[in-house]
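Bench log, entry 3. Co-assembly request; chain sequences pasted below exactly as received.
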Amino acid sequence: MKSKTYKVVSTIYMVLIFTFLYLPIAILIIYSFNKSRLNVIWTGFTFDWYKRLMQDQDVLNALMNSLKVAFISTTLSTMIGIMTSVGMYKYKFRGKSVLDALLYIPIVIPEVVMGISLLVFFNMVHVPSGLLTLILAHITFSVPFIVMVVNARLAGFDKSLEEASMDLGATQWETFWKVTLPLIMPGVVAGALLAFTLSIDDVTVSFFVAGPTSTTLPLKIFSMVKFGVSPEINALSTIMIFITLSLALIGEKIRFSKQNN
Amino acid sequence: MRAGQRAESIKSIICKEHIKENQKGHIEKGLLFTLSPIIIWVILFIVLPLALVIIISFMSRGTYGNIEYKFTLENYMRMFNGLYGKILWRSLVISFLTTVFCIIFGYPFAYFVANVEKKYRSMLLMMIIIPFWTNSLIRTYAWIILLRTQGIINFVLLRLGIIDEPLKLLYNNGTILLGLIYALFPFMVMPLYASIEKLDHTYLEVASDLGAKPWNAFLKVTLPLTMPGVITGSILVFIPTLGYFFIPDLLGGSKIMLVSNLIKNQFLTARDWPFGSALSIILIILTLVLIELYVHAASGDKKKIEVF
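Structure output for the full assembly:
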């Protein structure tokens, strides 16, 4: 149906754009295995840079911090997110649209503004920068995303199931645990994975609220990059890419496989 | 028959009443229980911090970088003249150019991807999403590897004898533009793809049956129908460009400032919180105006614009 020239032109164009998208990342990953420190000439394959990272106490600390912040902020933001979604779905109340609009703020305003506003706030209430401020900040930008994902799941929710459960004498609490939660579970898991990815990956907001001893992995990369290119950064970046990609892929899989059922 | 129906409806009314009563007893409790955490959270960590930024933006800076609680409009006046005015203007121009280039390169790309055979389509889509999930700081660093003086591009060009001495590819406006386009390209392609893929091809067939040349059909049918995608993509690209401070920081060196790293510097190095706050407020206002325009355009079109 389509002309031959169209096919040729479109294929070449797509190849070019995909090259543009992938080549820089591919080169970054390839050079994390290069023996030469000078980076450009390929002198042989090595795992040295990865081994070195495993011995670097600063990097290990940053990794631990990232994991701690991600686990705690994901757990708390998922709990708050579920309650918010269910509450907003179930009840009509005054100020609902205001709350809805406020929840969109962290999604729409430039991240740098969110970072400085939290910096100002923590400073004013005298909370010292550290893991605590990181966790609080990460919960703040994660909750709206979880609410969004769970809301999407609740949109296709059959209210009569809850009503039936209540008619049969279950309390609200039992209904929530035995009917509502299992039904929205795929949304919850996908939302939690999204929150975890956002937390592990965040640079901008963390940059403003992290203390000197609470560096996270992306912040560690940022400070290393400022001193120039090195194979250790390549190795660390490769690890980060691998972590976030696998998390994201799992999340998508859960979201889409369950949606089709 | 009638009596049966009536009985049915009465029964259903009774049932509903019963449910309502059942809920009424709990309604206050349930509402409080489920929503108080988020309300407290939003007030503490979203409303209060932003309110503080607004207040500080009207205060003056003390001699030692502290905040003096004296009302002033100075911070807002300052950003429209001289050096700061230039920075603000340059930021807007770079953000605008990023958006335009993303449309120019992204539209044909999204169009081609949306029109490949169905069996390849989801794989290609996945390939667009993957960079989207890769940390933009890391993707910015990848360009430094390529572009620096001893970088790969210079190395290859020198080896091939095309140049005699390494080119200065980093640390200029063009590099920042490239970095921003690279970071945000997927944000443009996704909504474009969504709107092009949905497009009803019968419109195009009708256009060509009525004698329209392919190019004309594209301009008069395809482009207007996929406009929601263009608008959504533009918003998704334009807003983050104003906030990614590490891209101008790393690719522009220390020479070139954009509003994002200007804000960062006011808080971390210059310690002029009132001025930094005022700049942030301007960014928020700009963002809100853009979103308002977008919502307006969307409802004017009577079409639902989907983000993804």
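Confidence is low (pLDDT under 50) at residues 1-22, 302-308 of chain B. The first helix of chain B runs from residue 2 to 56.
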